[in-house]
Amino acid sequence: MLPLNDVVSRTENEISSKTVTTNQKEKKTKQKLQLKAPTQERSKQTVNTLIQSCTDLLRKEGFFGVTTDKVAKSAGISIGSLYQFFGNKESVVSAVIQHALEGDMQLFENKIKEFSLGQEKNKKTYVVKTLIEIFENDLELKTKMLPIQNYLLEPTWINQYIQFFVKNISTFLSTDNEQISEVKINIFVSSFLGLIQNLIQQNKKISDEKDYLNYVISLYSQFI
Question: N or C: which end of the chain has fewer CB within 10 A?
Answer without folding.
Answer: N
